[in-house]
């Protein structure tokens, strides 16, 4: 019996069925195996290297620049040091810089990066590192450990800027704004976020299952890219953090802490954690005149940070009408 050659339509149907079966199998595997939810580690760690002990001879710190950084982000830390984060006096007040880091999850990388961080600590004295894996879900742990450290090492700092290592901060404007406030009163300002709740989609970076939180709405909070707080509020947050279970999204957790203390975050139009938009198609969103009156903008590449700092510090910079939003 002679075997016949399959018809073209039969071959096409077989291929289509194979592809369809593969897609069903892939979809099923995705549905039954979503990324595992990670809870933050418990705050049991101690700093590996506390390289910034308080020195009585130094002037009191008015604004402590606290920057969350991943261990490998050396270039970002260097650009912050060279630009807006440079330790200096502004309008008669003292600025200090501190980077918060954990350890790289990969042991081989961790050994190399820890050597780099130790070198940075010797040269700059601005690294505070703990022995936990530096990851998105451990940002809350990083915040809590910093608050504990501040209580004993830098409790007298009047105000704190808490931000990521890819923000651009106009520290002169911040000082002008903060000099009108009392550090012993409540202050917590940033880009306010209201009326949002947990994301229940397992494939989202911000996925939170109901077993962690039943409520469908978070308390008001400020975007974690950057916000300002007073030492009064830092003390309140530290107190609340000891009474609450750690929550994996750090900015939401701080909103929970404020709620625990009966305090509320506030909005400031000069803090843009979602970036800025140009007012017209003929204006670049990177125009320094758009940043001259702001306090903080999130998501800058290192070279952009250097260019913006250079532009804003040029005496020859001329712009139109000033907004005076601070």
Strand and helix map with partners:
Elements: H1 8-32, E1 47-50, E2 63-68, H2 74-82, E3 89-90, E4 93-103, H3 107-124, E5 127-133, H4 139-153, E6 159-164, E7 167-169, H5 171-178, E8 188-190, E9 192-193, E10 221-222, E11 226-230, H6 231-241, H7 250-260, E12 266-267, E13 271-272, E14 296-298, H8 302-312
Order of helices and strands: HEEHEEHEHEEHEEEEHHEEEH
The CATH topology annotation of the domain at 47-271 reads as Spore Coat Polysaccharide Biosynthesis Protein SpsA, Chain A
Mean pLDDT: 85
Question: Unreliable runs, pLDDT <50, ≥5 residues?
Answer: 1-35
Task: Return the CATH class of the domain at 47-271.
Answer: Alpha Beta
For the sheet with most strands, the description reads:
9 strands, mixed
Shape: globular
Please give the number of β-strands: 14
Note the total helix count: 8
- State the share of residues found in helices, binned by percent: 25-40%
């Amino acid at each position: 019996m002679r075997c016949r050659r399959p018809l073209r339509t039969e071959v096409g149907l077989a291929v289509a069925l194979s592809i369809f079966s593969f897609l069903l199998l892939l979809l099923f595997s995705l549905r039954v195996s979503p990324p595992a939810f990670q809870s933050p580690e418990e705050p049991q760690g101690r700093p590996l290297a506390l390289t910034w002990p308080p020195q009585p001879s130094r002037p009191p710190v008015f604004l402590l620049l606290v920057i969350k950084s991943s261990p490998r982000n050396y270039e970002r830390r260097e650009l912050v040091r060279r630009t807006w984060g440079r330790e200096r006096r502004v309008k008669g007040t003292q600025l200090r810089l501190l980077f918060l880091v954990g350890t790289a999850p990969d042991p081989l990388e961790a050994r190399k990066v820890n050597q780099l961080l130790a070198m940075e600590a010797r040269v700059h004295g601005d690294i505070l590192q703990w022995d936990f894996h530096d990851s998105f879900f451990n940002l809350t742990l990083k915040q809590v450990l910093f608050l504990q450290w501040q209580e004993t090492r830098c409790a007298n700092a009047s105000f704190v800027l808490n931000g990521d290592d890819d923000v651009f901060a106009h520290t002169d404007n911040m000082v002008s704004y903060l000099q009108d406030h009392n550090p012993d009163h409540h202050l917590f300002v940033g880009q306010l976020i209201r009326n949002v709740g947990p994301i229940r989609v397992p494939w989202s970076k911000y996925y939170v299952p109901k077993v962690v939180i039943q409520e469908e709405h978070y308390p008001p909070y400020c975007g974690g890219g950057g916000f300002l707080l007073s030492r009064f509020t830092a003390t309140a947050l530290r107190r609340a953090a000891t009474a609450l279970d750690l929550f994996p999204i750090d900015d939401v957790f701080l909103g929970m802490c404020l709620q625990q203390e009966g305090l509320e975050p506030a909005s400031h139009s000069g803090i843009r954690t979602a970036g800025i938009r140009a007012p017209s198609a003929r204006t670049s969103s990177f125009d320094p005149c758009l940043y001259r009156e702001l306090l903080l903008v999130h998501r800058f590449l290192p070279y952009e940070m250097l260019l913006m700092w250079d532009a804003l510090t040029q005496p020859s910079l001329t712009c139109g009408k000033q907004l005076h939003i601070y």
